[in-house]
Amino acid sequence: MIVVENLHRHFGGFRAVDGASLEIRTGSITGLIGPNGAGKTTLFNVIAGRLPPTSGRVLMDGEDITGLPPHELFHKGLLRTFQIAHEFGSMTCLENLMMVPARQKGETLMNAWFNRAAVAEEEERIRQKAKDVLEFLTISHLSEQKAGQISGGQKKLLELGRTMMVDAKIVFLDEVGAGVNRTLLNTIGDAIVRLNKERGYTFCVIEHDMDFIARLCDPVICMAEGKVLAQGTVDQVKNDERVIEAYLGTGLKNKVKEEAAHG
Amino acid sequence: MNRNLALFAGVALLFVLTGVFQSWNLALSILNLSLISAIMALGVNIQWGYAGLFNTGIMGFAALGGLAVVLVSTQPVVEGWQAGGTGILAGLFLGAASIAAAIFAYNRLPKGRVRTWGTLAIVVGGFFLFRAVFDPAVTAVEAFNPATAGNLGGLGLPATLAWPVGGLLAAGAAWAIGKIALGLRSDYLAIATLGIAEIVIAVMKNEDWLARGVKNIIDMPRPWPVPYEVQLQQSAGFVDWATRWGFDPATASSIVVKLCYVAMFGAVLLAVIWLSERALNSPWGRMMRAIRDNEVSAAAMGKNVTRRHLQVFILGSAVVGIAGAMYTSMNGMLAPGEYNPLRFTFLIWVMVIVGGSGNNWGAVLGGLLIGWLWLIVESVGPAVMGALVAGLSDGPLKTHLIDAAQHMRLLTMGVVLLLVLRFSPRGLIPEK
Amino acid sequence: MAEPFLIGEAMTGGYGGADILHSCTIAVEKGQIAVIVGPNGAGKSTAMKAVFGMLKLRAGHVKLDGEDITALTPQARVAKGMGFVPQTHNIFTSMTVEENLEMGAFIRTDDFADTMAQVYDLFPILKQKRLQPAGELSGGQRQQVAVGRALMTKPKVLMLDEPTAGVSPIVMDELFDRIIEVARTGISILMVEQNARQALEIADKGYVLVQGANRFTDTGKALLADPEVRRSFLGG
Amino acid sequence: EDVKLGILLGFTGPLESTVPDMAKGAEFAVKEVNDSGKFTLGTVTTVNGDTTCVDAAAATAAAERLVTSDGVKAIVGGDCSGVTGAVLQNVARPNGIGMISPSATSPALSTAEDDGLFFRTAPSDARQGEIMADILSEKGIKSVAVTYTNNDYGKGLADSFGAAFAAKGGSVTISTPHEDGKADYSAEVASLAAAGGEMLIVAGYVDQGGKGVIQASLDSGAFSSFYLVDGMYGDSLIEAIGEPLNGSFGAVPGTDSPGAAAYEEAAKAAGFDGSNAFSKESYDAAALILLSMAAANSTNSKDWSAKVMDLANAPGEPILPGELGKALELIAAGTDIDYVGASAVELVGAGESAGAYREYEIKEGKIETVKFR
Amino acid sequence: MDILNALVAFLNFVFVPALAYGSQLALGALGVTLIYGILRFSNFAHGDTMAFGTMVTILVTWWMQSVGITFGVLPTALLALPFGIAATAAFALGTDRVIYRFYRKQKAAPVILVMVSLGVMFVMNGIVRLIIGVEDQNFADGGRFLISAGDFKEMTGLAEGLAIKGTQAVTVVTAIVVMGLLFWFLQKTRTGKSMRAFSDNEDLALLSGINPDRVVQITWIIAAALATIAGVLYGLDKSFKPFTYFQLLLPIFAAAIVGGLGSPIGAIAGGFVIAFSEVMVTYAWKKVVTYLVPESMAPDGLVQLMTTDYKFAVSFAILILVLIFMPTGLFKGKSV
Ligand SMILES: Nc1ncnc2c1ncn2[C@@H]1O[C@H](COP(=O)(O)OP(=O)(O)OP(=O)(O)O)[C@@H](O)[C@H]1O
Ligand SMILES: Nc1ncnc2c1ncn2[C@@H]1O[C@H](COP(=O)(O)OP(=O)(O)OP(=O)(O)O)[C@@H](O)[C@H]1O
Ligand SMILES: [Mg+2]
Ligand SMILES: [Mg+2]
Known about the structure:
Low-confidence stretches of chain E: none
Largest interface: B-D, 49 and 50 residues
CATH topology of chain E: ABC transporter involved in vitamin B12 uptake, BtuC
Order of helices and strands of chain E: HHHHEHEHHHHHHHH
Bound molecules: adenosine-5'-triphosphate, magnesium ion
Oligomer: heteropentamer
CATH architecture of chain E: Orthogonal Bundle
Structural class of chain E: mainly alpha
Helix content of chain C: 25-40%
Membrane topology (chain E): Multi-pass membrane protein
Pfam families (chain E): BPD_transp_2
Subcellular location (chain E): Cell membrane
Number of helices of chain C: 10
Family (chain E): Belongs to the binding-protein-dependent transport system permease family. LivHM subfamily.
Radius of gyration of chain C: 17 Å
InterPro entries (chain E): ABC_transp_permease (IPR001851), BCAA_transport_permease (IPR052157)
Largest sheet of chain E: 2 strands, antiparallel
């Protein structure tokens, strides 16, 4: 689905992404891990058109999409969430979701002025859908709350909810789990799997919670210092010495053992 | 809701009091200006309140609206056209063509030195070509009877037609400005638009062939169907009617004329507010608010931020242009020296903020209130000062203060502005 | 029982509208670690803010070392030896990493070069990025700056709102180690965590907050062992 | 009974520093009339209105108030041509109120429809341009640089001077505007200096950009002598600039009548500067209105405005500042008068000043009259 | 061919005046940029703050002159300057306490503060006119020229003169020194850093124990000092008139923006960009070219790119051009 070829993104002299090449297969849930500052978010930003690459190409279904603006990529079915929540603070949570669907009739002025009936009908449909999403994320009680005034974790959920408002082909999730309650995160994981299975979404997920990665992802790609360090199945990557040294550390191993002991 | 009604009633009361204690003519004349201001405030609110664009070029768009009145409604100056009309048109065409050619070359040529120098050569060559054709034509046109003409004149069409044309002219300018400047943020955009407005005014001041520059155009025809007072006073039917109802014909004629304006401006205001409200309370409005809140995120959600900014910038500017045309045609005069940022930009901003940005009704309320205040303090300021110093014994201090009383206008404006913002910091009718 | 070192007792209040906290109590003993867990929107961050005086309380009070500080401003609480890392907006984005740390030491009059060296030891990446504006850092790096800034204060009590959100496992482990170390030097630590299992592991005391009220309060170990807590709040 | 006279000038805005002495001039005439006790139609009071000079709408509203609320019978004003035109069309004509402007000099106002209600005591720019060309060519000056204040007054003056000077064989090296009230005039001076010329014609206002340009020209040594138009006339300029101004010259409306001197004297005694631009014209405007009312024995604008041309022009007993009492007596006695006033009023055409001029030169910090034209 | 005369003509009419005017703008822009950098709004009252400070200084100068205190060849006003600064600082602190503080506590949007400052501007405007009137005031005394055009010609025997005024020199030097001090203060001192921290993230500044009131007070005091210095130097060089000071606001803002809001170096650079573009683009190069080319080729026309009618238009056009390529000014300014 997505092929990244020898991608570079430099900030001044600093190489945040330094010749990364990788592939995200259609229908997969690809995990992207790596130490802080490895260049994961920067890679997302380049793919999603928020930053221009210094060099290199990004292909989507064989088509070169390098440097296309974000709104065009959205229309091609490429969605992303932000690591640091980017909510529309002065709008209610419901509106935050309702604004997402593309090409709404009511978004052209002529319809907004003179074609209210058709607009209203469409609105009803979108509203219902948004309500369903809020329900699913367990925050339907917040539907009328301003998005600027909800808790940090709730913002993350909203961020995720926006990707559920449309039929995407590929969704990039940047640390949806950080700050989200683990019980809820499990539910979210289930949802991701369901979207993947039932609707055929492709996912690329950045996450530091290895349990979460292990539950969902195959394959897993580990980045470090702007390059791809290792890739493969979760187990392969988890046991890769370089990954352990750069990213997982030995503490985790202990913890994992402990987990096993606990059952 | 009740609170808002009360606020509007309060402002209405101000006008009524002005009518009762000063004169109805004054009240109506202030009302007309306030209505125009309210429309401009709506235009600004569309840009700022909906999309967060900090446009301080209002003055320029209003002036372009005024220019439209000249171009549409004054009589053509035949001698001017004969002297250099074609030359001026040809010059302008050449100028536009060389800009277009430069842009074309810039887009087509491969990046590098060839492109830079090629484009530059086209620009420079075009400039001199333009000057060579344009300058002599201008001199010829301006030489014809500079005391009363010296320009090309207009089309001699009905003045009411100038209003939509003013809107179109402003919209066209907004399109060009938007293409250049809308990438800028907050205060940078503000100063850029302010600068562009100054450029527009500079052109209007110095290009005499266009609308006589600083020599002004006076006595422009009134918009249909507003009558002239003098005509009314001469019409036996009107005088009869006035005396039958116990009015003085002179006063009655002025009032009738002003009421005509009130009706026309009011109609435009209602139309604009109806359209604005509909737009705001629709998915379009929601999308605009989203863009205002967070552009990055809106773009990631598939909204074309640049296009939407341009759209809303053009719309708002067109509304200001229409209001600017109405202003000029009500005065019957275009004086480019009149356009200064304090009056035509910042006063409008005060209206928007005091009224409550993001809320159409707030902008209207602010327009009416501040419009009233701006004109009424002219007489109230000195009166207040007179009352304040009444206790002082005669002497240089007292004379000094009384002489300085005229400046109470600005002082009073300032105090009221501060008081309103103090007690309702988000404006009188805040955004929901 | 003696009064805990820091206690927010029976706190009730919110952001102007309806109350978020309902008679919620949170406390930490000297040199101990207390961890607050709970679902999203439970009021954990709100409780932290309330303890730090960034929120008006309608009822209840906050005591530090026996002294009632309910009426003090946040900066007065800083002067009294409290340090806080908020959940969001927790760094100065336009200032360099080093300046961020210096600002952490703003109220200190002694030489803080030592402390800074310690922070750089703990987060080596920050040393590399010393002169870069903090706003240009990655999410996890920002989090490290935020914690580093609070450590610079040398507080008597350190309050952390999700310090490990977005940091990589290796850093997280070190961070927890370091927190234990800090606590050993006699500094009390009050933190909110969603990586709750690791956090409760090292916690002397745990609070489970639901809808602004205390649901469970016990030692960390006990909470970890409670199947209901595990299922509903710790993700099984 | 009170007879109200509106004084409609730009108390705030770009001319705010010029206007106070104009208003004082008008008030001074009113005081003189009242003190004489010979004005039988009532006590004259004044009401001020602010045109802001630039804001037509504000000016119109102020005029509207003066006329419909305060009930003034006549207006001294407005000051700037633009707002004056707007007030004339939108307030004065509809309500049939006469107005005499002391300082609106735009030629366009000559042809504006006014129902016989509008006069001005300032000459139209066209006339002054010719006078300037005469003076310069008589002095044998062949080439000059011109800077004008960028409004209808300055531009009109520069245009008419340019035409007249060219007709006499002189050349204008550059004619460039300056905006009043701006921070810096280096760019203007640089261009003027580069273009060169034997001297600099300054068509501006005495305490505005005109002064700034002179100051900067002297500082940089660009020009050392200046021709000063009527707007540039005033002691304040000499006070501010001092010695370097010696040798500059100019002309102001005036005749060899001692009117101007008398007025300045009296003004000084009354505590204001009568030499400032358009102060005399303001005095004359107010005086003319009141004398016309007396002559018409009516405060109705239609009546008094019919008398203005008679009173302003010969034949008749000449009337100078300070002689308004005498004038009222003569009028009461049915004797014809010729109001000369402080600025040598002579109205021609559609009621504008004919423009007799007094040529002067600045010598040792004093303004010395050279001759009359 | 006469390179020396060409150079002197250029220096005299273009370089020196533009340098001086640029420094005057820069001093004003420094104040604007400081307020923007720390308190995060565009302070429209800055022009009138300058007028206020200058007015106080003038009043004190008059008093000093009346009791016979002078400052040798330097203008007496420089002696009176500290009094002006003190009074203006007190006034600024007063306005902050009575007006701005409220909105800061409310966390009002920057545009609200801009409008509030517009209100303050109106009020200050009125106060200044009420106290000192609207007329022009000349208060420069002492020596006027370091070197006058005539003296220069005599000294060098050149046909062109070069004039440098004392006030011009003082202004240029002051502008550069003040910029340096401000830069050092904000970047290197603890107080300066705490001010930047406050402007970056107010809540977090509280959590670091920074006293917000103190930060705000210091900001206002420095801004008032900058405004007074700028106003007095401008008034000495030209003259004092409230309306002109109000009009100064526009070029000052242009300078601050072109340089990048919040950046002291930007303010200086911006001042020069605006001043030089005003003077250079509309300059008639005739004289200079005449000196440089053989007599037979001397130009007839003025060799002027644009007439001075368009000097503001040109400087704004340059401003816009700069912003198109560098959207936050030459020195990466802030934006709220
Ligand atoms: N605008 C910028 N200017 C300079 N450096 C930057 C900029 N943005 C990111 N960087 C640097 O690029 C590197 C990669 O950052 P990125 O955000 O991609 O990391 P990440 O892998 O997402 O890390 P994390 O897991 O902490 O979110 C970091 O070292 C960061 O400091
Ligand atoms: N500024 C605010 N104004 C109004 N309500 C708010 C505000 N911030 C948070 N809330 C509401 O208060 C409740 C508690 O929020 P809080 O931030 O304390 O949750 P939390 O327990 O920290 O959640 P999380 O784990 O997601 O960070 C939430 O329902 C939220 O919607
Ligand atoms: Mg990241
Ligand atoms: Mg929280």
